[in-house]
Write a sequence for this structure.
């Protein structure tokens, strides 16, 4: 993989891939965007979830 940096090409083929915690990142985005105020977690989505999945989703929100 090569990246352009300061008008030069830097070869990064020997670098390790970064570890990204998507759950943590998405949780932070959710908190920052206040999506819990815009999404009605107490109402079945369309298409509806199974009853057990719906109860699980409801348990995630206070």
């Amino acid at each position: 993989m090569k990246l352009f940096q300061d008008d030069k090409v830097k070869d990064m083929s020997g670098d390790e891939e970064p570890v990204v915690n998507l759950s943590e990142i998405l949780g932070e985005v959710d908190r920052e965007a206040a999506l819990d105020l815009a999404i009605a977690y107490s109402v079945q989505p369309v298409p509806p979830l199974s009853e057990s999945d719906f109860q699980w989703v409801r348990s995630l929100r206070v």
Notes: The chain has a mean pLDDT of 79. Strands lie at 2-5, 8-11.
